[in-house]
Amino acid sequence: MYQYAEHVKQKQKIYQNALLKAGFSRWLIGAGALHYQFRDDISYPFATNAYFREWLPLLQRPDCFIGLAPEKDQPILFLKVVDDFWHSDPEPLPEDIHNVFQIVEFAEVDSLHDYFVMDKNTVYLGPTLGNQPSFLGDVTLNDEGAIAYVDYHRAYKTEYEVDAMRNANRVAVLGHLAAKNGFEAGESELDIHLRYLQAVRAKDEELPYHNIVGLNENAAVLHHNHLQKHSPAVHRSMLIDAGAQYLGYASDITRTYATDNATDNASAEYKALINAVETLQLQLLDDLAIGVDYVQLHRRTHEYIAGALIEIGVLTGSVESAVNSGITRAFFPHGLGHLIGTQVHDKGGHLANENGELRAPPAEHPFLRCTRTLESGMAFTIEPGIYIIESLLAPWRTKVDSGVNWALVEALAPYGGVRIEDDIVITEKGIENLTRNAFSAAVG
């Protein structure tokens, strides 16, 4: 509980500083509300506002709020409590929460005015579906200046947050190992996904994002979420990108596997490709240090990608020429990684400072989600990959000097691609690889 209490104190300091800088007096953070399907009484799965669950791991209690006011030493939890014979009892509060929060129970959101000042000096932080709910009165909705300060500092995790992410990785690894067994047993993408859910003891909506389970060619689809229900005739490869939540914090892990069932001549080359991506990912981990510019790290990744493609024979020529020509971007089109926390892609990755100024990704790398310089306490992912994506490679087919071994590309296409992703926390002592530590603990 000490760890959690210190975490809340740190959050209070950040949020109060944000108010001072932006010229406001109070925060009201909404957990969010249930939303219903059109002309129906069936709700969509509830997902708590990521900013709310940084304060409190209360994940299935819609219409709750956290209030922060300078005259209050403790944050206030406005807890909706109603008599309800239709539904199961609500999610219980965490143990000893009364030592950290002042708790105010209410039955109707319109009564919040009786407990908290709702004027333009109060910043509401939460979902509104584009409209200002009437109960919010004259509050300021999601002020960008105040939120930018919060987002900038969310990159630096407290020990409570790091411990939650350790456990999120521990849980997800159980799912990854179960999924690997399903792949080796020749199961479909859907069946592998169901194995994963069973292993992590979660429903789909309790995952931090939609699992990606790509068999064979589908391993080249960066966000392959249409899980096929029938097994392919031959299992060549599997790329699984899947995470878990713990106390509202996410893990985001990707692994790629090959089988010995493939009957074509590219099986050895694909295994070499997996090994090459594993090697370059480990090299990137060795390159991590406080003060490293994530943009430059991403550019260095393209050099490593070029080297790997040359090594296995997909490209000819030099690393320099491959990078300068832009061909590596056809094989590795996404960013190296992103910040991570209660959001899989934590906001703030493009912030240059706490004032909200942005550092946009380079024009040639528009999908890079993090442009920050690495500092102690940051949590982020490292996820290089190499894919055979025809729509990206097609423009290069007519270039006589592309340096591409098209015969090998065609042979590798049925395998899709490779990605390896770890969750990292960097400190003054070095890096903590939450993902590889969890795999090591699980397999011994």
Could you explain the architecture of this structure?
With 444 residues, the chain is α+β, with helices and mostly antiparallel strands. It is 34% helix and 15% strand. It is built from 12 helices and 16 strands. The strands form 5 sheets. Strands 4-3-2-1-5-6 form a 6-stranded mixed beta sheet. The chain has a 3-stranded antiparallel beta sheet with strand order 7-8-11, sandwiched between helices. Helix 1 (2-22) runs antiparallel to helix 3 (144-154), helix 4 packs across helix 12 and helix 6 (267-287) runs antiparallel to helix 7 (294-312). The longest helix has 26 residues, at 159-184. The two termini are 30 Å apart.
Q: What's the number of helices? A: 12
Order of helices and strands: HEHEEEEEHHHEEEEEHHHHEEHHEEEH
Ranges with pLDDT <50 over ≥5 residues?
none
Q: Mean pLDDT, rounded to whole units?
A: 95
Biggest sheet strand order reads 4-3-2-1-5-6
Radius of gyration: 24 Å
Proportion in β-strands: 5-15%
Q: What class do helices, strands and sheet pairing give?
A: alpha+beta
Instruction: Give the helix level as a range of percent.
Output: 25-40%
Shape annotation: globular
Task: Specify the biggest β-sheet.
Answer: 6 strands, mixed
State the total count of DSSP E strands.
Answer: 16
Give the termini distance in whole angstroms.
30 Å
